[in-house]
Amino acid sequence: MRTAHYKKQTGLTMLEILIVMTLSVVLLSGLVEIVLAHQQTSRLQKGLSQIQANGRHAIDYLRMDMRRAGYAGCLPGGLVNAHSQLSTVLTQEYQAALIADNSYEQSFSSTNPGANSDSVQVTSALGTGSNLAVDMSSESAAIEVVGGSDIKKNSLVVISNCEDGDIFAVTKITDNTGSGDFDDCAAAGASCLLEHTTGSDNLNATLSKRYQTDARVFPLQTRLYSIQIEAGKENSLWVSNQGKLVDGIENMQVLYGEDGADADSTADYYVPLNNVTDISNVVSLKINLLLRSGDDHLSKDAMKYDFAGATNLAGPDKRLRKVFTTTIALRNKLQ
User: Fold this and answer.
1) Cβ of 236: how many Cβ atoms within 10 Å?
2) Are both 182 and 102 inside the same structural domain?
3) Which of 80, 196, 239, 311 is 20 to 30 A (C-alpha) from 287?
4) Domain residue limits at 186
């Protein structure tokens, strides 16, 4: 008689299945935590890199413009005489190498000024200037310059040699024979005549001296830096004649380095604008920028920071924040 042989039942018991499921959940949870941690680390690194890049760009822009504040060719210290309608303001403040107003608020078409943030406006001559073709026949005579394609009608210009300088408004541009009426010197030919007659633009048509061919004429540029807020976007650093420069700039505070009685072209102290004794003695600026990340929830708690003399500050969110500080010497105020 043959005995029947049956194979043993194979497979997983319920207990084994539960153990496998439990281990899978644990491993999967660990994997999810690793992925989430990696994502958070990537967001954190991206936020830090963004802040570093924006901070460097903002500092570079400000340094470049502030260093050349008051530039008027080879004229030392930007010492000029103003004959335009801006003379009551421009003479003193151009000599100071910058026009600065911590309370000045400018809005662009799509922005509002940032609250409690300073602004700073810098004035300087542009380029290498245009040579005089001939000596001026008198202090009130039209000025003939060679080239001058960047000189526009109704614009402010600076004429200077290495000893004297004058600011005036160009009231009319003609060709070198005195004919025509052009918008800029480029349209007038190889050389053009710049008129600076008394009227709504100039208080006085007579310059401080009869300039000769060693003088140059420069366009005058004024640029205002401020923090602006766009709806639904980041606070940004803007400049008046260009627009947005750098995103993520939450606040800007400016201190003014004033040279004291020793007159050694070195700042003896730094104060807010309303504490400056004499703006013409300002020889450097200390600019503090507060930057923040574009993304929120990068920090477990609101980040604490020190900014412009205030300590232990905290933002209203969990963004990353970092303070950038730079001290800028006004080169044209240094002896």
Assistant:
1) 22
2) yes
3) 80
4) 71-226
